[in-house]
Design brief:
alpha+beta; N-terminal domain of MutM-like DNA repair proteins; four-stranded antiparallel beta sheet; 7 helices; about 25% helix; DNA-binding
DNA sequence: TGCAGTGTTGCTTC
DNA sequence: CGAAGCAACACTGC
């Protein structure tokens, strides 16, 4: 998933659905000696502690920091979830029907969204008691579907949470009110010899940008992904700053990007994948008007190319994106 | 059959 | 020190 707009979409959904919910039980596929991650529910010892620290408490609200979901509880504990590549949280009624590795299924077999094949890899289930309902009467669940099992789930003390090792290294939030061009430029310039694409993906520089939105922001600002940070002119950097904000806001407005596994809290797709100009558009004609056809100004048709930068698949228009 | 894949970390090499 | 490359995590889809 899950870059800033997708995580934000999920957090917005959580705040609509689970505020005030009491956590009455937790189930996880990871409760097996096979998994050994540290301070993560994948460690069976920690999973036991995880349950002890959260069961019985109520959810106050949810917040996003970089690509992390923070679920604040009323007992000074906070659940931290990083969905990594394929994780996504969904809210609905689930039942434990059999004893295979993925036993939890939506109670309603006719709920198309929750039964979407991308949503059926249920690894973690929170059983919730909603405000105003009698204990045990309503079976409502918050579940984590995570095909590749990369997601990280842990619990940390709410006090001083932003100084915890999980969050302290993160750079500024690009959509925060106080974020401005000066901060953007100062942060980016911490990697003067780095490639701009790699720098945008660095969570300690700016939080929340991933592979999709970095490609889209560079496409929009006409900058080649392999440009070295120190070579990019100030005027171009300003365009990049604006582009980053535009693509992230668009991502949120279109409900996130569901080109792959991401689904919202109801298990439904977002639509930003329908608006890509660069990401996974290899071989397509660039949609910038000047790149669409040959013309008298000697401009060529632009084709989207795919290269690898910093080990990540990268897409750009060879015509209009300038290498600095 | 093979490879690529929305993320992150840690290790190695230069 | 910093940048880059690679493996690991685990599984699906083209």
């Amino acid at each position: 998933m899950p870059e800033l707009p997708e995580v934000q979409t999920t957090v917005n959904g959580l705040n609509k659905k689970v505020k005030g919910a009491k956590i009455i039980d937790v189930w996880s596929i990871y409760n097996s000696p096979y998994y050994k991650s540290k301070e993560n529910i994948k460690d069976p010892k920690f999973f036991k502690e995880f349950k002890e620290r959260i069961i019985g408490s109520k959810i106050i609200n949810a917040e996003r920091r970089a690509k992390n979901i923070l679920i604040y509880l009323d007992n000074k504990e906070t659940i931290l979830i990083h969905m990594k590549m394929t994780g996504h949280l969904m809210f609905g009624e689930y039942t434990n029907t059999n004893k295979t590795n993925d036993p939890w299924k939506p109670t309603d077999p006719n709920n198309e969204a929750l039964n979407d094949p991308f949503n059926t890899h249920i690894r973690l289930v929170f059983s919730l008691e909603m405000p105003g309902t009698k204990k045990g009467v309503e079976k409502v669940n918050l579940v984590l579907s995570d095909t590749r099992k990369f997601a990280k789930v842990t619990v940390i003390k709410t006090d001083g949470i932003f100084h915890s090792p999980d969050l302290s290294h993160l750079g500024p939030e690009p959509l925060a009110k106080e974020f401005n061009f000066k901060i953007f430029k100062d942060q980016i310039n911490k990697k003067p010899n780095g490639k701009i694409k790699t720098t945008l993906l660095d969570q300690t520089i700016i939080a929340g940008i991933g592979n999709i939105y970095s490609d889209e922001a560079l496409w929009l600002s006409n900058i080649h992904p392999e440009s070295l940070v120190k070579n990019i002119l100030d005027t171009e950097l300003k365009k990049l700053f604006n582009s980053v904000l535009i693509v992230l806001k668009n991502g949120i407005d279109f409900g996130g990007d569901s080109m792959s596994d991401y689904r919202n809290i109801d298990g439904e797709r977002g639509s930003f994948q329908e608006r890509h100009n660069a990401y996974r558009k290899t071989g397509h004609i660039c949609s910038k008007p000047a790149c669409k056809k040959e013309n008298k100004l000697n401009l060529k048709i632009g084709i989207i190319k795919r290269i690898v930068v910093g080990g990540r698949s990268t897409h750009y228009c060879e015509n209009h994106q300038t290498k600095y």
